[in-house]
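Dear support,

I submitted the protein below through the web form. The confirmation email said the job was done, but the results page showed an empty box. After a refresh the structure appeared. I'm attaching both so you can tell me whether what I see now is the final result or a partial one.
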Amino acid sequence: MIFRKSLIHEMTWFAIGLLVVLLLLVMTSQIVRLLGEAAVGVLASGAVWIVMGFTAVRYLPTLFSLMLFIAVLATLTRMWRDSEMVIWFASGRSIY
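What the results page shows now:
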């Protein structure tokens, strides 16, 4: 129970932080593109934030998949590096 709680806690906080960073990167590149289109006149200036919302929703499945993969990989790698997994194995727990 303690091991599972510790693992879930580590992965959750890392995943939340990673999602914020990834979303910020994607939205920054999109806002630059959309503001460029609004400056040229292709997109109405009032529609920039609405299109940003739809763009965020469009990228969420990809970002969630990437976030989940990186969070699990980074958390388990840190546990191996800090020898926490050795403690798990010594107490009779397995990776599964």
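Response: this is the final, complete result; the empty box was a page-load delay. The chain has three helices and no strands.
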